[in-house]
Fold this protein.
Amino acid sequence: MAHAPRQLGRTGPTVFPLALGCMGMSAMYGPADEAESVATIRAAVDLGITLFDTGDFYGVGHNERLLQRALGNRRKDVLLSVKFGALRAPGGGWTGFDGRPVAVKNALAYSLDRLGTEYVDVYRPGRLDPAVPIEETMGALAELVKGGFVRHIGLSEVNATTVRRASAVHPVVDVQLEYSLISRGLEADLPALRALGVGVTAYGVLSRGLLTGSAPKGPTDYRAWLPRFSGDNAAVNAAAHRTLAGLAERRGVTPAQLAIAWVLARGADVVPVIGARTRAQLVDAVKALDLELSPAELASLEQAVTPGLVAGARYDAGQMAMLDSEKRA
């Protein structure tokens, strides 16, 4: 069946109601099957998905090259959302963030080459650089829009106060924020974002697999170092999956479909970013679009699977301290 497109904010493009997040095809969740990754991206295009999310620091450029290879001459049929700014070390470590105007333009030059494209549809800093006023970063992005190298500007993991400051320089179409049944922090800023005409691309809608019973698959799976998957927290948090699985079984759907459907129901200005790494996961996720939840079902789901069920923060203490989205004026 046809699915109504959603618009990224008041000034952004219309997109398929689900986006494909490609990070896991290059890094963070352990080894990925390159051939399956390419097939999954191509299958997503065939299914009508139009927004593909990547970052120049995913696999240190690998993810962008993967997208170029998979899309080929279908680049014109999709929208690319690209994050930049995270600094990497040769050994794979993370060394900080750079939002200086000169760094913004340098990063885009390399991304355009790796993606094999003349422009990026949505370009966004992956985090707020505390050493650089957001107005300066936005000024550089606005110049790139004027030059035709960027179509729209987005932000990631920032709060409404920062979005308001950024919007005073140039329109912001969306903010990428974590959002799921057990991570609802963005709801505090949602009214302000809507007043500003800024949409949300919601990542982590399955809480990195916690809601579907997925577990870290080895030392290269960064979830092994996240509080919610570590130590005693892992056993405690398994209850969230069991509860969701029980509700999904009664509804005749999968836990992933139920979790995605809940995010979809938050509003037409919210676009879930699904991190499918295989065609099977992709097909399962897209079926969530056919799942309509009544107000009573939504309320029951929210009461059964709550942030209070979960032990541990979504990132470690150091990363949490860096998140502007966690700070309130």
User: Anything to note?
Assistant: The CA atoms of residues 226 and 318 lie 11 Å apart. The first strand starts at residue 6 and ends at 7. The mean pLDDT is 93. The two ends are 44 Å apart (CA to CA).
